[in-house]
Design goal:
397 residues; 2 domains; four-stranded antiparallel β-sheet; 14% strand; binds pyridoxal-5'-phosphate; LL-DAP_aminotransferase; transferase
């Protein structure tokens, strides 16, 4: 295609949507300048500490000069094996660590490259709305036609695949449960239906699963974060899942995760990644390998925060469900019987006038309008203080 181009921005770069977080950062800076103490609940970056074994592994790797070179695929064997063992222990799924597991520099990197590896420009991607905002950029970079799958509260924020118009032929379906931003969970039966739906259409099922370990089940309750791989046969044909140590093991800054599933998909992803990056530094791989052998901690901390925040928001009259998973509270502000109409304006005003930063629902998609998302990244008393400050912000300017 010959198009007249101006400047140095490719269509790919130009297609990546801007972020409302730029507005939020400016509002937070204004609040700081005005002397407000900042309570930032806008980013889901865990404030927990990685497992001691992971920190020991990274420290000792730093003292070993043989870890300083470029890592080869063969060097990733310990992490691939640890990931396969984790998948067996956690989900009862047996993977070949050579062909069905690949280390990632986080799930976000994995998804962007996965789309490049498995789709062609112009292909259709079915994607939830609301969703984790980088999905929009990843789809844009791959030149995909996005068909949004609306997530409604009445359907427990699960997509209704039967509502996808018959004329839509998606190359891939992207799901994420436990869900960011809604905190919704999906059952294994849901994944079985989704896998069946995809198989019938020749659609790749991509499951982004970074919250696999962040669930708050009641005693005796079923797994709130099943794997999509449990919904397929032993070959995992047409199914791939992205895991991350960012949330489960508080290792967001380490940038490490792994992809699992269909060997063809994993091979295609490895090809694209081979053109873009080497594997994570050996010290980070060692840390992730060690972390995957531990029982994830910090759940009680998130549960206590949830238990502080949700009642405080209920007392304001906001419409909020108790999340059973993830580190978010997805809330629908209400004042005097009126709903929130403009989440971006509210979040910007709230940040500027009170120093409390939350994510406006609109940042996650059109269906997010009317909501705000709280990340449970502060202690209970700080969350209560945040709600007290927010109570003074009118929903309308
Ligand atoms: C749904 C979802 N996917 C991926 C990520 C990023 O994961 P990673 O840190 O492994 O890139 C996040 C982080 O918030 C997320 O919410």
């Amino acid at each position: 295609m010959t198009t007249l181009r101006t400047g140095w921005t490719s269509w790919r770069a130009a297609a990546v949507p801007g972020s409302v977080f730029t507005l939020m950062n400016a509002a937070v800076a204004q609040a700081r300048a005005a002397g407000h103490g900042i309570i930032d609940l806008s980013i889901g970056s865990s404030d927990g500490t990685p497992p001691a074994a992971a920190l020991d592994a990274v420290r000792s790797a730093a003292d070993r000069p043989d870890t300083y070179r470029y890592p080869l695929f063969s060097d990733t064997a310990p992490l691939r094996e640890a990931a396969a063992q984790y998948m067996r222990r956690r989900f009862g799924v047996t993977l070949d660590p050579v062909t069905q597991v690949l280390p990632l520099i986080g799930a976000q990197e994995g998804l962007a490259h996965l789309l490049l590896a498995t789709t062609d420009p112009g292909d259709t991607l079915l994607m939830p709305d609301p969703c984790y905002p980088p999905y929009y950029g990843a789809a844009a970079v791959a030149g995909l036609q996005v068909v949004p799958l609306p997530l409604h509260a009445e359907h427990a924020f699960l997509p209704v695949l039967a509502d996808v118009p018959a004329g839509v032929h998606p190359r891939a379906l992207l799901l994420n449960y436990p869900n960011n931003p809604t905190s919704a969970v999906a059952t294994r039966a849901f994944f079985e239906q989704a896998a069946h739906w995809c198989r019938e259409r020749g659609t790749l099922l991509v499951h982004d699963h970074p919250y696999a370990e962040l669930t708050y089940p009641a005693p005796g309750e079923d797994d709130l974060a099943p794997s999509a791989l449990q919904a397929t046969d032993d070959t995992f044909g047409g199914v791939v899942e992205l895991h991350s140590l960012s949330k489960s093991h508080h290792m967001g800054g380490f940038r490490v995760g792994f992809a699992v599933g269909d060997a063809d998909v994993i091979a295609a992803l490895a090809r694209v990644k081979g053109a873009v990056d080497f594997h994570p530094w050996l010290g980070i791989q060692a840390a992730a390998t060690a972390a995957l052998g531990t029982v994830p901690g910090g759940l009680q901390v998130f549960r206590e925060r949830r238990d502080a925040l949700v009642p405080a928001l209920h007392a304001l009259g906001w419409d909020v469900r108790w999340p059973q998973a993830s580190m978010y509270v997805w809330a629908r502000p209400r004042q005097g019987g009126a709903d929130l109409a403009d989440s971006v304006s509210f979040a910007v005003r709230a940040a500027r006038e009170t120093g409390v930063a939350v994510s406006p629902g609109r940042a996650f998609g059109q269906m997010g309008e009317g909501y705000v998302r709280f990340a449970l990244v502060q202690p209970p008393e700080v969350l209560r203080e945040a709600v007290e400050r927010l109570s003074r912000v009118p929903l309308m300017p």
